[in-house]
Amino acid sequence: MRPGSRLRGEFPRGWWRSARWWIAGLRELALSTVTAVVNVLFVGEMVHAAQHRDEPRALAHLSGTFEGYVGSLLINGAGLVVLAVMAIKDRLPVVLTALLAGWCPLNFGVSAVVFVMVARSRIRQSATWAKLDFIEEHAPKYGRPPETIEEYRAQQLQE
Q1: 139 in helix, strand or coil?
Q2: How far is the C-alpha of 73 from the C-alpha of 80, rounded, in Å?
Q3: Intervals of the chain under pLDDT 50
Q4: pLDDT tens digit sequence for 44-58
Q5: For an engineered disulfide with 68, which of 4, 5, 32, 113 has Cβ 3.0 to 4.6 Å away?
Q6: Which string of b and e fits 15-30 if b means at least 16 CB within 10 Å?
Q7: pLDDT digit string (tens) for 132-143?
Q8: Count H helices, E strands: the chain?
Q9: DSSP assignment, residue 142?
Q10: Would you list the DSSP string of 19-84?
C-alpha cells in the first residue's frame, strides 16, 4: 500500500473538523491506556478469549486493544522486576509491597492469557487472520465511502 493511500485512510479529507474522527481516535487511545494500566478490568475479556480461542473473529474484537495487552505485559513485567529489586535492596512499606505484589501479577496474568490466546490463534489460523487484517487495514473508516479497489474488496469481505 502506498504511503498516500495509507495517509488518506488515517487522515480523510476534513479530518480536523470531523467529530467522528476525533472521538474514534481518543476512544482508541483511552482504551489502550486503560488496557495497559488497569488490565484487571478486563478479566471478562480474558475469559472470553479463553472460551473463544479458536474463533479469530471473536478474538479480533476484544474490548482492549492488542497493543494495550502487550503494553500491560511490559509495564507489569517491569513493575515486578522493580518490586523484586526494591524488596531485596530496600525495605519497602508493607502497604506498598502488598499492593504491588497483588496488582502487578494479576495484571500480568490477564495480559499473558490474552496474548497467548491471540498468538496461538494467529499461528494456527493464519489465513483467517490475514483476511481480518486486510479488512482492518483497507476498510473505509469514519463513515466515508470506499474509493479504491482494496477498499471495495474489504467492504465486500466485511459483509
Answers
A1: coil
A2: 10
A3: none
A4: 888 988 999 899 988
A5: 32
A6: eeebeebeeeeeeeee
A7: 989 888 888 777
A8: 8, 0
A9: T
A10: HHHHHHHHHHHHHHHHHHH-GGGGHHHHHHHHHTTT-HHHHHT-SS-HHHHHHHHHHHHHHHHHHH
